[in-house]
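Batch manifest line 374
LIGAND: iron/sulfur cluster
JOB: complex structure
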Amino acid sequence: MVLPRHVYVHVPFCARRCSYCDFSIAVRRVVPSSEYVAALARELELRFGDRDICSVDTLYFGGGTPSRLGSDGVRDLLETIRRRIELVPGAEVTLEANPEDITRDAARAWRDAGVNRLSIGAQSFHDDVLTWMHRTHDSAAIARAVEHARAAGIENYSLDLIFALPQGITRSWELDVERALELEPSHLSLYGLTVEPRTPLGRWHSRGDVTESPDERYEAEFLHAHGRLASAGFEHYEVSNFGKPGRHSRHNSAYWTGAAYAGLGPSAHAFDGTHRRWNVAAYAEWLRRVTACEDPLDESESLTGDNRVAEEVYLGLRTRRGLSVAVPELARVKVWVDAGWATYDGNDRIALTPLGWLRLDALAADLTLVRSCY
Ligand code: SF4
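JOB STATUS: finished
ARTIFACT:
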């Protein structure tokens, strides 16, 4: 078994559910930080108790809204993790944070505890859009959050934005990209809105109150972001992610190269190079199990021949680094290159272009089929 160099910790708490979100969350007005940190210590003991202490390169607190743990909660969580897991010098420690939680004091406390990267959920700079999304912050809070992060010495911060909003929602995507650039982030993550059934948005959609963004708007906004961010010095290094040179997310990049990672907390996934496992999603059940010293495992799977090929192809095509191709695949690759969907280095590597990324699922399925036939 490969020891993980990367650890993901899921912190499920949110103040309310955003209109589009189907993540595994626990809505809490008052966050039970001490209860959660104690339970996470139990899971660490259960899962890592008889192993050597791992040394890890990246630690990522995702959610949910990890910043809702506040100053003391994040500090206690990091101390708990460090009792079993060593962070190598220069390790990337990311905290997902909502703007309203990033106060001057919190940012300083997180930095002192070891957080050196923030992933800030901005989503839009239009206040009426933020209200429609059920976000708990306004546009001004995003700028204040960035100011506090920088004042605390956290210069490595990413902003999340959502594009391709439904028809009828008045929003200038171009303006949102410009407002984000004015805040000088080192990284941006851009996600096209999808309508998930068990969400407020899903219900509005099924009642006919909203209509999904047409494909043309999705494509135009994706391509606008690619061009504008490239001109501002960002590398579009993965279908949804843009980073300044040297500021790519090291944690997320590990997922895309198939590296082993550990996952802790409700719904967290872990992978050892062959086997993937994931925890129960409901906070109450995860808490019950780890408190009773039971493994919070929900399900697991092994990567075998076919699904390993599918995963390698999909992950490779997501990234600018691309994928090695074999001689029997070159005829298919030529079609993609001629269409402007991919580049080929003339040796053995292809990478999708932004036009190719707009067809990612179909192209990955196509190449997987070709690859599994020889
Ligand atoms: S803050 Fe994030 S995780 Fe929580 S409901 Fe909103 S989108 Fe989902």
